[in-house]
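Appendix B. Chain record.
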Amino acid sequence: MQFETEERWASAGATGTVTRTMADRAYVVTTPSGRQVAVEPRYVGRRAVLAFADTDEPGHYRFNGDGRELVRAVNVNVQESDLRRMDLGEFESKLGLKGVEIVEATADIGRHVREARHGKELYKLIVAMVLLLLTLELFLARASRESAPS
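Structure tokens predicted for this chain:
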């Protein structure tokens, strides 16, 4: 199977052609939205040439026939290949998430993964609260002993 353009992509609305051997009979093009279109081949000698002009939708088009598949991109959004770093607000809005946290130091990755799986470890907070309550109880017991009538 050969795609007869210099590039593996084309602009939206362009006609792409695929050359196949004459043994192929059923040809289907699947658009990026999943719509399947049967394509009638034009035979040139022993080869079948498929032309598909309905490429107004940007994305990947799949040419299927004879158990093989050829994928061609049409006007894929160039922002998908932008490798520049996004700020956190833009990242949250593009993903539709709230409370996204970026891990800057690689040493903190293990802790962040553990917290995401199991939640934050509360034992330190609980130990501090118990010690605070024991200290408060100690002061209250001492104060009540001093103020008790003899």
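Further analysis of this model is presented in Appendix C.
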